[in-house]
Specification:
Number of strands of chain A: 16
Number of strands of chain B: 17
Bound molecules: flavin-adenine dinucleotide, iron/sulfur cluster, FE2/S2 (inorganic) cluster
Strand order of the largest sheet of chain A: 3-2-8-9-10-11-1-12
CATH class of the largest domain in chain B: Alpha Beta
Mean pLDDT of chain A: 94
Shape of chain B: globular
Number of helices of chain B: 5
Order of helices and strands of chain B: EEEEEEEHEEHEHEEEHEEEEH
Low-confidence stretches of chain B: 1-19
Strand order of the largest sheet of chain B: 12-11-10-9-13-14-17
Oligomer: heterodimer
Strand content of chain B: 25-35%
CATH topology of the largest domain in chain B: Rossmann fold
Mean pLDDT of chain B: 92
Structural class of chain A: alpha+beta
Largest sheet of chain A: 8 strands, mixed
Distance between the termini of chain A: 35 Å
Largest interface: A-B, 54 and 45 residues
Distance between the termini of chain B: 31 Å
Shape of chain A: globular
Low-confidence stretches of chain A: 382-391
Structural class of chain B: alpha/beta
Radius of gyration of chain B: 18 Å
Helix content of chain B: 10-25%
CATH superfamily of the largest domain in chain B: Nucleotide-binding domain of ferredoxin-NADP reductase (FNR) module
Order of helices and strands of chain A: EHEEEEHEEEHHEHEEHEHHHHEEEEHHH
Strand content of chain A: 15-25%
Largest sheet of chain B: 7 strands, mixed
CATH architecture of the largest domain in chain B: 3-Layer(aba) Sandwich
Chain lengths: 391, 294
């Protein structure tokens, strides 16, 4: 198709009526397309075949400990805020089998799990979640070891980002410099625009793979007016954001106040349920489980998500290192906002707000950080954290 | 040996790569020999058909040992780094997995992943006095370091081993301890928490042995492994005597599910004990060590 040269950064326009064609092209190219859809009153990520599966007309209300979907008469496909799912569910699944073993004589043989996962295309990924994937890249593909399970799933993904058109009440990506505009890690990024009767997407090209998909569907060059309409959507979202987390010297703030009474206060509320770690797109901890069949002839190792809020997590013969709720909450927050910087050169929080929404008692990491800043003291304020928030 | 900048700006001196090609997959090893060390502790010698040369390892490193269908736990290598053809582990049976591992017979198989983790500072200690302090099963991870110290005895100044066990029947490597004690230029002291009849040796905590050895605080390297509380008091004692935190090394224990920095279980402050440790320069973890429930 003749038209503008499609290079990273190029912006074009796709009419909303062509979205189905777009999804079809991705399937035809061999991708397993995953996108948002409403299930049991929640927006989740699942297989996506048709635009009718998208949560058109749905929006949501989120607060600490509150998530409520609301039907509107709007036509927008992507007016909802993020649900509990992130790409973690696909790239670092809740359970994976690492290997199987079979008894042979007095010994056994191990067979590595090499099953090829689907080649995923993700539609509707928000900026915060792209930063979370970049964070997991650092965790699972370090210079020392790469996790083969993650690497296999991650390698060939196709990402269609959507720039947020509405800030959720628990979001704080602006302060984390991770959103609301997708700036890294996508093949194509959409901004959805409704102007009177017109419904279209401004599409930014992120990669040559993205451009190749685009070439197979109708599009036209974006006009200056259309581009600025997209900019206005993103700016309005940023302007709506109510929450913020001040990251200045955040690492020192956490490391310098481990014994502060502040931790006792939050521990009184925390149920150590681990919900926050399950919904967090960057939390990566796992445990392994070795199982056998009844006859004891075959065995396998499964790895599943684990949470630093459980008692077993830090178990050593004789007891847990972190027996109290205080120690576990402290570990979680200190890991996110301090240790991650040392370990992976980026913060372990992308400001998605999920842990606030899904915490049954509404514990809010931004409020916790603010309380610690008000009460605690930094002993080494000279240490600068650098541009941690942009992986 | 690559010297890399630690992420906190301190130097990280040790290699952490396992020498097995597939870090997630246990490699079957056959049990060749077992020896009962004490009422609850066994030493195993393992070999792999597929790796006749064995596993190259450095003193201080550990493997993840897998008992078929039961589970996998971290266990230090207790053999001689100069003889890697035989993989040696000393295991104390405390729970399901260590009981299964201790119960193996020659001909049985165990899965092995590793070696993982950091090494004892044998290079750093060249030309210095060396004091090795072990508590309980903590002598096992230090034995490879002792073998190396003895082999290059002339490259070090004074060498001492202080070992504390709960009771006389808990003393590991009894015969070897006797032999080491007879070596010229190696000062060995053993103590027990609770003496029983017939024990003519020292009674009391291992720190009480420190005054028995001579060392130059300004040129001494201390290596400590044992229960955390024992390591805490040992470190304090050496610091009091003027040994700087940079010259004291301890080996840490944490829950470990992977050994390679993915599962998150072994964290201590900014460190993954499985790959930034288990052997740490004390000065590096001073702010995080010994804090309650850290
Ligand atoms: C780096 C390192 C080196 C070690 N070296 C030795 C050694 O040379 N000899 C030896 O006898 N023991 C060693 N240990 C301790 C050994 O790993 C534990 O005794 C063992 O994990 C207990 O498992 P279990 O299932 O038998 O007992 P349980 O107490 O029932 O343990 C249940 C589970 O908790 C975890 N766990 C319990 N205790 C520990 C522990 N101390 N460390 C790590 N995970 C634990 C394990 O996942 C274990 O499967 C070492 C531990 C570490 C971290
Ligand atoms: S800590 Fe909370 S806000 Fe931050 S990335 Fe995780 S779930 Fe989102
Ligand atoms: S902070 Fe909230 S979600 Fe997280 S463990 Fe505590 S109660 Fe559960
Ligand atoms: S043992 Fe899994 S991260 Fe260290």
């Amino acid at each position: 198709m003749p038209g503008p040269a499609l290079e990273p950064g190029t912006q074009v326009v796709m009419e909303s009526s062509d979205l189905q064609k777009f999804i079809d092209v991705l399937w035809r190219k061999g991708y397993h397309v995953v996108g948002p859809t409403v299930r049991n009153g929640v927006v989740v990520y699942d297989e996506l075949k048709s635009v009718t599966d998208l949560p058109a007309g749905w929006t949501d209300e989120q607060e600490g400990a509150t998530y409520r979907l609301k039907k509107t008469d709007g036509k927008a496909f992507f007016a909802y805020g993020i649900g509990p799912d992130s790409l973690k569910k696909f790239l670092h699944p809740p359970v994976v089998r690492l290997w199987r073993a079979r008894r042979e004589g007095a010994g056994f043989q191990t067979v590595e799990e090499t099953e090829e996962p689907p080649k995923y295309a993700f539609l509707g990924v928000r900026a915060c979640d792209l930063h979370a994937v970049a964070a997991h890249d650092r965790v699972f593909t370090s210079e020392e070891y790469a996790d083969p399970s993650y690497a296999r799933r991650r390698r060939d993904i196709f990402v269609v980002a959507v720039n947020c058109a509405k800030a959720g009440n628990t979001c704080f990506c602006v302060s984390m410099r991770t959103g609301p505009k997708a700036t890294v890690g996508f093949d194509l990024a959409l901004t959805e625009i409704l102007e009177g009767e017109r419904h279209y997407f401004v599409v930014e090209v992120g990669s040559e793979t993205g451009a190749a998909v685009l070439r197979e569907i109708p599009f036209k060059e974006a006009t200056a007016a259309e581009k600025s309409a997209a900019e206005r959507v993103i700016a309005a979202t940023a302007g709506q954001m109510r929450k913020a987390l001040d990251t200045t010297n955040i690492r020192e703030l956490l490391y310098d106040n481990p014994e502060h009474p502040f931790w006792d206060e939050v521990a009184e509320r925390c149920l150590t349920c681990g919900n926050c770690t399950m919904v967090c797109p960057t939390c990566f901890c796992t445990a392994v489980e070795d199982v056998t069949d009844l006859a004891g002839e075959t065995a396998e190792r499964r790895r599943h998500w684990d949470s630093c809020f459980t008692e077993d997590f830090s178990y050593l013969h004789g007891g847990s290192v972190r027996a109290s709720a205080k120690a576990r909450y402290r570990q979680w927050m200190t890991h996110k906002l301090a240790a991650w910087l040392d370990q992976f050169g980026t913060l372990g929080c992308v400001g998605c707000g999920r842990c606030i929404t899904w915490c049954p008692v509404g514990i809010d990491i931004t409020e916790q950080a603010r309380a610690l800043r008000d009460k605690g003291r930094i002993e080494r304020p000279s240490v600068t954290v650098g541009e941690h928030a942009s992986p | 040996m690559p010297v890399r900048e630690d992420k906190r700006g301190q130097e990280r001196v040790w290699e952490t790569r396992g020498s097995l090609p597939e870090p997630m997959l246990p490699l079957p090893f056959t049990v060749r020999k077992t020896r009962k060390e004490t009422h609850d502790t066994y030493t195993l010698e393992l070999q792999s058909e597929s790796r006749p040369g064995g596993l190259a390892f450095a003193a201080g490193q550990f493997n993840m040992l897998y008992a078929f269908g039961v589970g996998e736990v971290p266990v230090s290598i207790s053999g001689d780094p100069a003889a890697p053809e035989v993989l040696v582990h000393t295991v104390r049976a405390v729970g399901p997995v260590t009981r299964a591992i201790s119960g193996v017979k020659p001909g049985d198989m165990l899965g092995v992943r590793g070696p993982f983790g950091t090494r004892w500072p044998l290079e750093d200690a060249l030309g210095s006095d060396v004091v090795v302090v072990a508590g309980g099963i903590g002598l096992a991870p230090l034995r490879p370091a002792l073998y190396q110290l003895f082999r290059r005895r002339r490259d070090y100044k004074r060498v001492a081993l202080l070992y504390g066990a709960r009771s006389p029947r808990d003393i590991l490597y009894r015969r070897e301890l006797g032999r080491w004690d007879k070596r010229p230029g190696v000062d060995v002291h053993v103590t027990v928490d609770h003496a029983t009849e017939g024990w003519g040796g020292n009674e009391g905590v291992v720190t009480a042995l420190i005054p028995k050895v001579e060392f130059d605080p300004a040129a001494t390297v201390v290596m400590v492994c044992g229960p955390e509380i024992m390591m805490r008091f040992t470190v304090i004692e050496f610091q009091k005597r003027g040994v700087p935190s940079e010259k004291i090394y301890i080996s840490m224990e944490r829950n470990m599910q992977c050994g390679i920095g993915f599962c998150g279980h072994c964290q201590l402050g900014p460190y993954f004990v499985c790959k930034d440790g288990p052997v740490f320069r004390f000065g590096t973890i001073e702010t995080f060590f010994g804090r309650r429930e850290m």
